[in-house]
Amino acid sequence: MQKPSLPKGTRDFGPGESAKRKYITGTIEKYFTKYGFQKIETPSLENLSVLTGKYGDEGDQLLFKILNSGDYLKNVREDDLHEGSKHLLPKIAEKGLRYDLTVPFARYVVMNQHNISFPFKRYQIQPVWRADRPQKGRYREFYQCDADIIGTNNMWNETELTLLIHDIFLALGLEDFVVKINHREILSALAGLVGMKGREEEFCVELDKLDKTGKDHVVDAMVKSGAEKKKVTDLLEIFETEGSNIEKIKIIESEVGPANGGVKQLNELLQLLGEQPDRSNKVEIDFSLARGLSYYTGVIFEVKTTSMQMGSLCGGGRYDNLAGVFGLPNVSGVGISFGLDRIYDVMEALGLFPKDVTSGLKVLITHFDEDTFRHGRRILDELRGSGIQCDIYPEIAKLKKQLNYANRIGTEFVITIGDREMESGKYAFKNMESGDQTTRTIQDIIHYFTAKD
Predict the structure, then answer these.
(1) Sheet architecture: strand order including 390-392
(2) C-alpha pair distances (Å), 204 with each of 210, 222, 278
(3) Residue 423, C-beta contacts closer than 8 angstroms, at least 6 positions apart
(4) I need a surface site. Which of 114, 223, 244, 372 has the fewest CB within 10 A?
(5) H or E stretch including 148?
(6) Does 359-452 match 15-350 at the fold level?
(7) Which residues have CB under 8 Å from 383's CB, separation 6+?
(8) What share of the chain in percent tops pLDDT 90?
């Protein structure tokens, strides 16, 4: 018999893990709705024509393709096999698993443009899939929690998303983070300065690997793409310059010129953030930030924890042309995406989850025989009718076995029903953590829980 296993890069989540993940998504969703975002959902499957060409060459390689139903080789000729995978793929696979939530959102906007009021603020919490090499903090199936604003290009939107990032991480108790910000127009100008004009996407892809592969690798890769080694080396040294955000912008402005749109917008964003009362923001201008996805055109964001080594917990940016790819030009959007799985890993490692997040059953009813079991079932219905999370041990068994079960599943209280309890209407009510036991009527027990709520 074959031993069961999971595909690499995927995971099961038990009750405790699921409760913690729900705590994260519940907190994120609370702030999404507080900021006026509306929920949508899109299918796990998208046509490959929707997905391909939106993430750059590397992104396209990480798409999970789905073989056509039935005889997926029926349209394939022997000659097709010699033409290579790009030629063969359209004949055997028309669909794929979504790579992110942003491209499907752009497709949704175009298909529903007559039913949407612009600007449209949407949020979405769903899984995505990438055929990446699994490693710490990087999975093949993971959840994204997205908030996007489409149909407006005012810098207030970037400001609001920055404020939203701060509110959510602080609400989760994750205070050691930094919001790194850059601009694609600045990156495009820098690509030209090192000799990669017209190859801006390659420049951004390689720069995005700086933290992963190191400075030397990035320099070598850019030189192979036509850049001048000294100019790349000098640029990377500029990126390491210490100073305030304003000072960093002035340094880069001397390289790209004051007319650069990215310089102007970053200055405007910092000014707007500074106007918000009672805010101590954790924004840091980082001109090495590139974000490898090719659809970004303006401000880009990335959030990292400063407490431990981990990839980005949140990222995003401005995209001006994504809806235009699907036939709706001149509709600019900006969005951010929280990575549920990495946030979970960081909070678990730092012990940030509240103790009661994983609390189990409130009450388990225990019994001795068929008569007390029958009586317990009536009490069960009464407790549940009062909104109390409770259950009854489903078999006739020794009391010790039932109490051990209550401990294993994390039950807070146990009600024990015997002949005396049935006659008096007063039941043994035991706190499983402290061991304290009292005798109470069902109405007293109901009041105990409803008064706490």
Answers:
(1) 390-392, 363-366, 413-416, 427-431, 437-440
(2) 10, 10, 35
(3) none
(4) 114
(5) strand 141-150
(6) no
(7) 363, 390, 442, 445, 446
(8) 77
Peptide bond just before 119 cis, omega within 30 deg:
yes
Residues 428, 447: Cα–Cα separation, whole Å: 16
Is the distance from CB of 316 to CB of 335 less than 8 angstroms?
yes
pLDDT per residue as tens digits for the range 342-361: 999 999 999 999 988 887 79
In this structure, the dihedral spanned by the alpha carbons of residues 398, 403, 409 and 410, taken in order and rounded to 10 degrees, is: 170
Q: Which pLDDT band holds residue 453 (cuts at 50, 70, 90)?
A: low
Q: Does domain 15-350 have CATH number 3.20.20.80?
A: no
Confidence of residue 389 (pLDDT cuts 50, 70, 90): very high
CA distance 412 to 432: 6
> Is residue 183 within 8 Å of 213, Cβ to Cβ?
no
What is 359-452's CATH topology? Rossmann fold (3.40.50)
Please answer whether residues 172 and 39 qualify as being in contact, where contact means their C-beta atoms are separated by less than 8 angstroms.
no
Whether the pLDDT of residue 373 is over 70: the answer is: yes
How far apart CA 4 and CA 441 sit, in angstroms, is 48
Phi and psi torsions of 429, nearest 5°: -125, 105
In which order are the strands placed within the sheet that holds 299-305? 38-39, 120-129, 141-150, 333-339, 314-319, 299-305, 177-183, 283-285
Read off the pLDDT of each residue in 270-297 and give the average, rounded to a whole number. Answer: 87
Helix H or strand E encompassing 105? helix 102-111
Structure tokens at 151: 């149909």
Q: Are 393 and 444 in contact (CB under 8 A)?
A: no
Start-to-end CA distance of the chain, whole Å, equals 50
Total Cβ atoms within 10 A of residue 58? 15
Q: What is the pLDDT of residue 384?
A: 96
Where are the chain's structural domains? 15-350, 359-452
Instruction: Indicate if the pLDDT at residue 329 is higher than 90.
Output: yes
